[in-house]
Amino acid sequence: MSDKRTSVKDALFEPPGPKTRRVIRIATVVSLAAIAALLWVVLRRFYETGQLDARYWSVFTRWTTWRFLGKGLLGTLEAAAVAGVVAFTAGFLLMVMRISGNRILGYISTALIEFTRGVPTLLFIYFFFLVVPKFGIKLPAFWKVCLPVSISACGVVAEVLRSGVNAVPKGQKEAAQSLGMLPHSVFLKVVFPQAFRFVIPALISELVIVVKDTTFAYVVNFPDLMQNAKVLISNYDALLSVYLVVALIYIAINWLINRASVAAAGRTNRYAVPAGKKQ
Amino acid sequence: MSDTMHETMNDRTPVIELKHVDKHFGSLHVLKDINLSVQKGEVVVIIGPSGSGKSTLCRTINRLETIDSGEILIEGTKMPQEGKELARLRAQIGMVFQSFNLFAHKTIIDNVILGPMDVLKKSKKEAKEEAMQLLSRVGVDSQANKVPAQLSGGQQQRVAIARALAMHPKAILFDEPTSALDPEMIGEVLDVMTKLAREGMTMLVVTHEMNFARRVASRVIFMDGGSIVEENTPEEFFNHPKSQRAQDFLNSIQAH
């Protein structure tokens, strides 16, 4: 990683002096003790109520359990990937409409962005689950998850992309224009590639939200990780253990996505303007 | 003119011509009835205090700034206001900016080949060969595969000049090309510009480098308050400025 950049730590704090260091040490010990105590209380309660009994956990010794969860995981990943692509495409179009300079397109896009950002995902799910079938449109369960989740994300994606476009220095566009490039070339070859690099971290955060939103699949009976977990629970009566494992799997997915974003950011770091240089 | 480089084309048609150009920024009258022409092979240097409108003037020529009234002609063709025609004319006029404006996401060589490939529809191979020649001409061929942020300001500006040259422009506009550079890098950029001028490139240069103006300019234009106050050969202008404002300006910069 580039060492020239201000990390959040640098931005908020200056290097601690002797007094501060002592305070930090004490606070560290105290908070570690508090966390350990909390953990102990939780485990203790689990033990007392029998949640740690083998019968709740033996389900994970079966190969079929893992295969079933794996299938659910595939469903989740598939839905999240498709929803991510749809949301990005729709978000890109909304952003282009908004910055197109055409007043009417701009108003339409702004209205759509505000609408999709303001309405909770669950309402879109209900819309596709309950309202759309009333018009005789039969969608597969997969799309009843993907479409609402992408609609709910596309407005945010549009705004994230727009903020990236605004962050590209005006001189970049001018340099491309002065070469005689046409407006669409200027945008697609010079402005947008840079804007996209700026917003990779924000887009990744949105992708994490998309992954989490796919858990609404249980509403429409699409077999994703969450839905399959529910099936396991009702079959084995192992609520806590299954949810705990499923939570860990979600954490792992989103951790991997974040790692990928850090790697992507690192790869584009060499394009950054070093501190102290005018550009 | 006893110039062998100039071909049969009508030598009297200026490469760049501005007629009665006016422009306002809100209530500020930034360009007042500007009349100016640049002949083929000429190096016209515009000087003047900051805020005098010289950068704005430079940027109107390829329509990075719009004008309120008047005409801008490139080889006798009126500058179109939009679309493919505008782009086509822009491609014929190179531009070098104060802040270099190299494409930050592209390598040096890709900066130079983008225009030729996208606008002139050259093949990548052809564009690359020429780009390498241009980069060696400005002395940065060894940096071809780096990205702009890895180069010094002087190197970046020389790449920007190569990028402009790759379009085979009829003229190049320089908008304060050395104002963002450390003193030791100014020389290397001015050297490249001097070489270009000697090779017969038509240039319009907005600058604060008086020595460059003195040595290289065919003509010096002094602007103040949005108007062209004086226009003369460098010898005449620097030795016998006619207007009071030019005298004051020259005194103020020679005072230190």
Question: What features would you describe in this structure?
Answer:
The complex is a heterodimer of chains A (about 280) and B (about 260). Chain A is mostly helical and about 280 residues long. Chain A folds into 2 domains: about 15-45; about 65-265, MetI-like (MetI-like fold), CATH 1.10.3720.10. In chain A, about 80% of the residues lie in helices and about 0% in strands. Chain A is built from 12 helices and no strands. Chain A has helices at about 10, 20-50, 55, 65-100, 105-120, 120-130, 140-165, 170-180, 185-215, 215-220, 225-235, 240-270. In chain A, helix 9 (about 185-215) packs antiparallel against helix 12. The two termini of chain A are about 20 Å apart. Mean pLDDT of chain A is about 90; it is low at about 275-279. Chain B is globular. In chain B, about 35% of the residues lie in helices and about 25% in strands. Chain B starts with 15 loop residues before the first strand and ends with a helix. With about 260 residues, chain B is of the alpha/beta class. Chain B has a 6-stranded mixed β-sheet with strand order 6-7-8-3-9-10, with helices on both faces. A 4-stranded antiparallel β-sheet of chain B has the order 2-1-4-5, covered by helices on one side. The interface between A and B is medium-sized, with 26 and 33 residues.
